[in-house]
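Reagents: none. Just compute today. AMP-binding protein.
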Amino acid sequence: MNTAAERSTIPGLIRYIVKNIHPDTHTFMTHKVGDDWVEITYRKALENIDAISSWLLEIGIKKGDRLALIIENGPDYVYYDQALQQIGAINTSIYPTLSETEIEYILNDSGAKTILVGSPFLLRKIVKIANNCPALVRIIPAFDDFEKSIAKLSLNAGVVSLKQVIDEGLKMDDKYTSAIKSAREAILPSDLSCLIYTSGTTGTPKGVMLTHFNLTENARVSLIQIPIIEATDIFLSFLPLSHVFERTATYHICLFTGAKIAFAQSLDLLAKNMAEVRPTVMNCVPRLLERIHDRAMKNGTSAGGIKSNIFLWSLKIGKEVRLAHEAGKKPGIILSQQHKIAEKLVFSKIKEKTGGRLKIMLSGGGALPKNIGEFFGDLGIKILEGFGLTETSPVMAVTETDRIIYGTVGRIIPGIEVAIQNIDNQHIYTIQTHDTFKEDFQSEEGEIIVRGHCVMKGYWNKPEETASVIDAEGWFHTGDIGRYFKGNLQITDRLKNMLVNAYGKNIYPTPVENTYLKSPKIEQIFLIGDKREYITAIVVPAKETLQEAFNLSQEFFEKPDVFIDEKEIADWIGQDVKKYSSELAKFERVKNFRVKRNPFSIEDGEITPTMKAKRKVIEKKYAKIIDELYLQETEAD
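Predicted 3D structure written out:
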């Protein structure tokens, strides 16, 4: 079998590694157990994977069956995913944060036969709905002492722990070795690898059908674009593997290169884990980078005096060095010496909090504010942006390591076409590929459409919805608005997010919101203004900053009132609303706002698991407050 064929299916990747890159005694994954980081070799992983496959075959699972997972990141996810994939079953991952109603819908829509469950909390969710899911035959807790969660319940599905599955599977090794090998070799690149259900900001979630080729080819060509990732790298994984971004950009990239995966314990312990693991590569979302930026700025300037002056001077030197490199020049002797001082006094201390070894951080899942990317560039940390959707496997474009244009999402990856289409008359302004790239190319703005190996097979059981987004010529319509800038793709906003004010002006919320999010006082902002005379907003303050400014206790944030009515707090935030409004066109400026006590949340159904606002939900939920914002015009500009 040639190399390309060996690496054209997900289960083929891990076996390629132990055959060509690492011995099977090499560390594949590491995770924290108690106080210690425990390493798992490829050999141990393959033993567990084959054991689970044997057990699945024993209970009658066959090619094409859908098997669900609702579990936080960790080795158990990998074992189960690899086990089901190598016998031709289809991974149906479910976000742990989804409601019981949404989970029930996904299980029934996919017809999932088993579900791997990661915690007692999640098991309690599953057992409440299990009997409403007729296809479900096994519930598999990935933890001990699950019996009390199912005591006195009459469940149609059997319940067996993952430990028992592996123990029983190990005893069946001889019985199913040949069958597993045959099943693995029978998988075609065109076969379905997974169903990933979209977040559903505007309606019922849809199961995106991604093939083995979609996923393996996406990882392969992304590595062409980012060739600095190597077998010696270590990734720290904390974004959910139930989402295609982390699955491709960490899990599958590591399966392609032989890099090690370390699983973070939780978001709350991420900073601690970064210092312990000292990763060289890490995928993240813009909000994490914003928080690191905000904390660094606060720590560097809050003391005032000499310490603050040194911090701000260092950032100035870092910016000068960055701009020199971007212009293709070498910093002069004096600037180079100044940069060494800045590195020693300031930059090295910030980097040490990330472990001190990061080569790159890849940001996805949302637009990264330009100033945040530039800040990390000034520190000497490369932040690469990527762009794509679940329906595109996901990567369509990613920043090249030697050419970072802040505010863009990079160059088109090899093997696909990405066009910009007029949203009114469907005229295609331009079609660009990896090979047509020109550093000075710029285009009109329009909807981003894509054609090629990354495009999904379609939506599960939804041919009409599939036809509505993939046209007769094979173009997938992303619903994102963008253009080409300096050869790179640049995202403006979501088509469905666009607000059209009462005077017919088009307003894209994302760049406006990002302008206000520069404020250290603002955690979230949601713009309103469709068919209205002016823009208003619901603003969520940055909790720690607000607490310090007004000496507030935790009880303040636990009050039942959704909105904060204290005028002094509104005035405090209003200072920054006015300040940053000056950077916007007059019709884009927020003229009135209300302060929400706590952030928009997944649990309240206000945002998706990928942190996108559910516009219709929020507007309906807070309709009374929104109407009040327009009863009296309050100028904030």
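The chain is about 40% helix and 20% strand.
Action item: order primers for follow-up constructs.
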